[in-house]
Amino acid sequence: MGLPAGVPGAPGDLVVDWARRADDGPFASVAVVDRLRYGNYDPLIALSAAAAVTRRVRLVTCILIAPLRETATLAKQVASLDALSGGRVTLGVATGARRDDYDTSETAYGGRGARLSDQLAVMRSQWEDPAVGPAPCRPGGPPILVGGTGGPALARMAAFADGYVHAGGPPRAFARAAGQARAAWADAGRPDQPQLWGMGYFAFDDDGAGRDYLLDYYAFVGPFAQRIADGLLTTPLAVREMLEGYAEAGCDELLLFPATASAEQLDRLVDALAR
């Protein structure tokens, strides 16, 4: 379950209530997106609020734009959230593709991929250093997922992470990306298989508000934003077909993010899954 923390104007009590209700089932995790120059809540702050009202679900960033942040402080924040939540954090990271986020943070846009790789190595090391603390609940720190497209992102995933998170689209797009992730994993000599996560957006009978949100959120990709908006799940049948398609493609966990912020949307999704 994606929390509505990424939808501008979402009331704080609604975000917290979504997390509380997700913990009652049938969801495995609650997740948040990350932007700097946008009207969303900070992802780690939102997950801290969620941690306080949940006991079971995992707390997931999908994704956190790590290069915007100072590495040692970020590592301590993530370790703190993991320790306070009883080891429920899954850290999804990527470089982020929006230049305005970097301009706002006064962080160089160029070289962000290399910076992320360095950060992942440093965070793993810091989580194993008792002088910094707090110690995460799992040796080596929380599970890490890496997002992004292309060879460098997949190589980064295979070198430093526990799995890959795909940025959305139909099941066939996920299947292609999953195959590439498995190949990069094998090329790096990693045993077993990477965790494979996906994501999608839903909004039931919202008079176009969900579509408008996606067009705004993904405006930086130009005309391709229309294709993203066209993939919005608007019926229970579309949700179930998405779940079945991703499961058949080998997805370990699919995150469904709301494109509008209302309690009714969560009610409708729970009902769709129950059927």
Beginning-to-end CA distance, first to last residue:
17 Å
Oligomeric category = single chain
CATH class membership: Alpha Beta
Spatial shape? globular
> What's the structural domain tally?
1
Q: Estimate the mean pLDDT confidence.
A: 96
Which range best describes the helical content: under 10%, 10-25%, 25-40%, 40-55%, 55-70% or over 70%? 40-55%
Rg computed from alpha carbons, rounded to a whole number of angstroms: 18 Å
Uncertain spans, ≥5 residues at pLDDT below 50?
none
Number of helical regions: 11
Summary of the model, kept short:
This protein has 275 residues and is an alpha/beta fold. Helices cover 47% and strands 14% of the residues.
How would you describe this structure to a colleague?
The structure is a single chain. The chain is globular, with a radius of gyration of 18 Å. The chain has one domain (4-274): Luciferase-like domain (TIM Barrel, Alpha-Beta Barrel), CATH 3.20.20.30. It is an alpha/beta fold and 275 residues long. Helix 7 links the parallel strand 5 and strand 6 (195-202). The model has no long low-confidence stretch (mean pLDDT 96). 44% of the residues are buried. It is built from eleven helices and seven strands. The longest helix is centred in the middle third of the chain and has 17 residues, at 171-187.
